[in-house]
Amino acid sequence: MTRSRSATLFAFALLLPATIYILFIVAYPLVDTFTLSFTDASLRRTVKWVGWVNYQKIFGGDFATVIIRTFVWTFFSVGLKMIIGTCGAVLLNALVPGRALFRVLTLPPWIVPMAIGIFMWGWMYNGQFGMISGILQNVGLLDRPLAWLAYGGTAFGATILTDVWIGVPLVTLYLLAAIQSIPKDLYEAAWTDGAGRFYRFRRITLPLIVPALVTMSMLSLIATFNSFDIIWILTQGGPNGQTTTMIIDTYKTAIGSYKYGEGAARAVMICLFLSVFCFFYFRVISKISSGEAK
Fold first, then answer.
1. What are 52-69's pLDDT values in tens digits?
2. Burial of residue 91 (number of CB atoms within 10 Å: 0-12, 13-18, 19+)
3. Does domain 54-244 have CATH number 1.10.3720.10?
4. What are the tens digits of pLDDT across the range 99-119?
5. What is the pLDDT at residue 2?
6. Tell me: the pLDDT tens digits for 19-29?
7. Which partner for 70 in 245, 250, 255, 289 could form a disulfide, CB atoms 3.0-4.6 Å apart?
8. Angle at Cα 208 formed by Cα 207 and Cα 213, nearest 5°?
9. Torsion angle, alpha carbons of 215, 219, 221, 226, to 10
């Protein structure tokens, strides 16, 4: 056996565990879900092949509204997390007294178990004894208690606010690490030339953390699009379905109504939407990057 062939076999041996993991943990469930979406699988013992019926039911109902709501929820949530996280990273990177303490204080929303944090927000949204309604009444912005989770508009905004609170620390710390990797010489040269803080941020900081922004926005988008815990614990998709997103609708169909075939079809649609979006997202980013390189 030649040395090159031995090295090739050794490389394949190193890849084998990851390949097995992808095949049995990722590929097999994905193929099985896709196959299940063409059946009428439920609690019945018999399973019939129904073809595209489950997908026709999706587009024949109000699923289009659910899709639009999911994209709106994801857009505002991810957008706010990226804006607040970027501003927080810049502030935490500044040379101010107590900077280490401020960095530690950004961690609790991320460290606290998600369910406990969401229940805490649920208590604050309560109209009778919730802190938010009480404060707004004390300052005169409300004349009576407001149950934030009882109305579609306020419940939708409340779920976004909770998701932003949970997700901002990770975005902030990730972007803070990216900012700290920027050479200090660039800032010193710009400061010597008389550049102000905003100019330095716009011409130095922001362009150099674009790769980190792209990566974090993509990871945050996928996690937010598939976010289940926040909406389910706060509203369970209510009131009147006003906070029902694609993942909540899939859960209600497959687990709540025991319609596994229809739920699988909805899961396939979620995977398809995210795959198509990620594909075009990376295409656009690569073109922008290649244009800047030229």
1. 888 888 877 788 889 899
2. middle
3. yes
4. 778 888 888 888 888 899 999
5. 64
6. 888 888 888 88
7. 245
8. 80
9. 170
Distances (CA, A) of 119 to 105, 116, 163, 178, 200: 20, 5, 13, 33, 41
> Does residue 291 or residue 246 have the better pLDDT?
246
Structure tokens at 143: 């004349």
The dihedral region occupied by 145, where left means phi > 0, alpha psi between -120 and 50, and beta the remainder, is beta
Structure-token match 């710009």, residue found? 190
Question: Cα-flanking dihedrals φ and ψ of residue 37, to 5°?
Answer: -70, -15
Which residue is it, tokens 């932003």? 164
| pTM across the whole model | 0.86
Q: What is the DSSP string of 46-108?
A: ---B-TTHHHHHHHHTTHHHHHHHHHHHHHHHHHHHHHHHHHHHHHHHS--TTHHHHHHHTSH
Domain boundary assignment for the chain: 54-244
